[in-house]
């Protein structure tokens, strides 16, 4: 997939109340695995491919 395709398919959603940013690189879909970084970023995987990110405490992490 080319960068332009990824940019066009990327969806962002922010939950202000929970301060969580959801980034989906394709249509939102269930992940079959995930990893969590020390910064509170959840990397969502499906068939060993990154399908999205969930950024907890997004206001602090992205500041």
Automatic annotation (TrEMBL):
InterPro entries registered for this protein in UniProt: DUF2283 (IPR019270)
One Pfam family it belongs to: DUF2283
Protein name: DUF2283 domain-containing protein
Lineage start: unclassified sequences, metagenomes, ecological metagenomes
